[in-house]
Amino acid sequence: MSHTAHIRSHRKPRRSASTIAMRAGVAGGVLSTLAVAGASGSANAAEPVTQTLELPTLTADLAAQVAQSADVTQQAAASYQLQAERDAAAAKAAKQAKTDLAEAKKKAAEAKKKAEEAERKEAAERASRAAERTTLSVSSDTGSSTGTGTSSNTSTSTSTSTATGSAAAVVSFVQAQVGKAYVSGATGPSAYDCSGLVQAAFKQVGISLPRVSQAQSTAGTQVGLDNLQPGDILYWGGAGSAYHVGVYVGGGMFVGAQNSSTGVVEKPLSYDPPSGAVRVL
């Protein structure tokens, strides 16, 4: 055996004839295909290919649609703006209405308060006048029940001199009003209340007296009931808080607008004894 017999041969094995023929056929097919393709390519190269891209054309209809869309957008914007303005105006009106309502309620409350105060004041005045008339009525009944004895005592303690001058004019005026009606707050000439009669009497001689009994009871010099003169103002109640006034006419008599039942009367002092007197003349 050769010394190289155990070494693998580096030579390639021989291919069979069939294999070689098959591979040659395949190669030939490929070459023929390439030849045909090359010929076709050469023919096509002689005729250049042109490709056209058609862009959309802005037609009249499309332009109209675009314009219409713009108009719609503008109208929508205007509508939104108008609505916003209306909302703002409504909010402002609501705020003003709320303010006006609050002011109206405040004024109504103030008016109601004033009306209630006026009503309370009027009720108090009515009650005061009612109490005054009740007191005068009770005093009148008391004077009548005491009889002539009190009248005699009072007559001897007062002046019986005849009035002259301004005092005579005052006396004459009040006596001329006897028989007229008593009306609270009246100052003549057809009706009087007590202080209205006294004020009207002194007005005849140019003397302006306060309107109410309380003020008239301090309008002159205080005098004692045992030193009365015609024309003196008589009062019932306290000086400065009197509830009734009249005029002393002499001879133990006085004239006064007593109440709605009697009207203006001339009565003796015993009929309703006064609390005090003031001299103005």
User: How many domains make up the coordinates?
Assistant: 1
Total number of strands: 8
Output the CATH homologous superfamily. endopeptidase domain like (from Nostoc punctiforme)
Would you tell me the overall average pLDDT? Answer: 76
Q: Which bin fits the share of residues in helices?
A: 40-55%
List unreliable stretches of 5+ residues.
41-46, 133-161
Gyration radius, to the nearest Å?
Answer: 66 Å
* Second rung of CATH, namely the architecture: Alpha-Beta Complex
Give the overall form: rod-shaped
Strand content: 5-15%
User: How far apart are the termini?
Assistant: 193 Å
- SS field, number of helical segments: 6
Q: What name does the CATH topology carry? A: endopeptidase fold (from Nostoc punctiforme)
The top-level CATH class is Alpha Beta
H and E order? HHHHEEHHEEEEEE
Largest sheet: 6 strands, antiparallel
Class derived from helix and strand content:
alpha+beta
Q: Strand order of the main beta sheet, please? A: 3-8-4-5-6-7
